[in-house]
Amino acid sequence: QGGTADPGAGRERRLTSEELRSHRWWGTEGLRSFSHRARTRQLGYLPEEHIGKPVIAIVNTWSDINPCHQHLRERAEAVKRGVWQAGGFPLEFPVATLSETFQKPTPMLYRNLLSMETEELLRSYPVDGAVLLGGCDKTTPALLMGAASADVPAVFVPAGPMLRGHWRGETLGSGTDMWKYWDERRAGRIGDAELAELECGLARSPGTCMTMGTASTMASVAEVLGVTMPGAAAIPAVDSSHSRMAAAAGRRIVELVWTDARLSRFLTAEAYRDAVATVLALGGSTNAVIHLIAMAGRSRVPLELADFDRIAREVPVLADIRPGGRFLMEDFYYAGGLPALLARLDEDHLHLDRPTVAHATLREQLAGAATHDTEVIRTPDQPLAEQGGLAVLRGNLAPDGAVIKHISAEPRLLKHTGPAVVFDDYRTMQATINEPALEITPDSVLVLRGAGPLGGPGMPEYGMLPIPDYLLKQGVTDMVRLSDARMSGTSYGACVLHIAPESHVGGPLALVNDGDLITLDVAARTLRLEVDDAELARRRAAWRPPEPRYGRGFGALYQEHITQADTGCDFAFLSREGEVPEPHAG
Ligand code: FES
Ligand code: MG
């Protein structure tokens, strides 16, 4: 790591220290500046340590409750080291953590809140540039959305994946193998002792989930967008390279401030197209669809579901990483990481002449990238799949679209008609899924509603509906499942997700009855409820919207402003055009 080419070199003049935003706090005449200087002495700094230097906010999502970010306190120190070395003034800003594991009902409820917190602290404090520390699923889009809206110079430091999991000589993937062994448990093949051992082996180091789940997908998104140090996304959290990368980011951000290289320079329409292509080549998480649309919205770049489907038809899947493939992020790192994969996509699928935070062009950044293991990172003529593993479906059941990651589904289900078994909410489904009276067969189509952005609330990762125990015992491992929910990036199966509009706002999903035939046809990109329009109109007339869930608090703000999945689930007031005045600092 540690590219040193200046993306602004030769075409951008450098700021003077009087032009730094922070100068308004410390450098001007008057009572306020005097007060700010006195309070900086109180912090323990002499004038020569900070006056005239770029102030770098280290925005840190570390928390005791977030195992994926355990090491980010230490990494913040490495970033500070780099900032000092380059002549900047680092200040750490702790922000909310969104722990995928522990936060309920789902951290997705709080993605926009963390983005607001990030944007507002970058606006309201004397900050010239930011290094963003995060990685557990929602933290990456949240930090980048906030920083993009503030449009400051920024570098993202991904937390990095944890080491491979281990159990009795077997390599385990967090998430993916958790689902798998829980199914084994339900089928009666795993006892208490084995379960306790698995608990110790599934996640055995700091870092984010080490499959190509949402965390690794979004870290890779940040890297291909050009806002991380080169190669950052795949570095294992506990590898010493990770500390060196963090320090390099600290050095780099100071230079980005002097050349006024704000995020908007990098987060262009071309960069977002490349991010979509990369997600597809990685066989990445379906959650990236929602996050990328929301992030592009903050960057004022048009990006819609149709772009994903179109690009998915062009891009081969090159990364053989679980849950779609065989390997884990640690293997991906040793195989050459994202630079190797991007070099293979090349200009057939990427825009290589755009700048990154570390290099004048992505082309220059990828020079010398090599693949060291062609099992893990395939060549385009021997891909894992010819086409990206994602399809956007439409039809009378999903007028505004739905998403399926068909690469992780059993092929026989990709064209399927079956009778619906409908669950109105997740808890009912949990309580009744194993009841023989439901007469669920391998051909049934399991339907979960009430799990969308408003219905969930927060669109929880309920989309991989459980297969009934009695079918599991018969060896059934996949079924067609539909919902307005999301699905964990580490999940798999023939799960149709993000159905929009959601049932809670009266989307057609609300009108499905038990026994209705539903047809999924991935090749045709359709999802149909085989019920005639007159009958659907009758059902619609009888439908009543649910009562609002929240009477006050953040939930009330959320339910008033959240948008549907096809537009990224941002708050409408955050994604719309509009001026935000700079605060007066004097
Ligand atoms: Fe944090 Fe998976 S739980 S990345
Ligand atoms: Mg996840």
From TrEMBL:
InterPro entries: Dihydro-acid_dehy_C, DiOHA_6PGluconate_deHydtase_CS, ILV_EDD_C, ILV_EDD_N, IlvD/EDD_N, Sugar_Degrad_Dehydratases. SUPFAM superfamilies: IlvD/EDD N-terminal domain-like (SSF143975), LeuD/IlvD-like (SSF52016). Gene3D superfamilies: IlvD/EDD C-terminal domain-like (3.50.30.80). GO terms for biological process: branched-chain amino acid biosynthetic process. One of its GO terms (molecular function) is 2 iron, 2 sulfur cluster binding. Residues 53-364 form the Dihydroxy-acid/6-phosphogluconate dehydratase N-terminal domain. The keyword Amino-acid biosynthesis applies. Its EC number is 4.2.1.9. This is Dihydroxy-acid dehydratase.
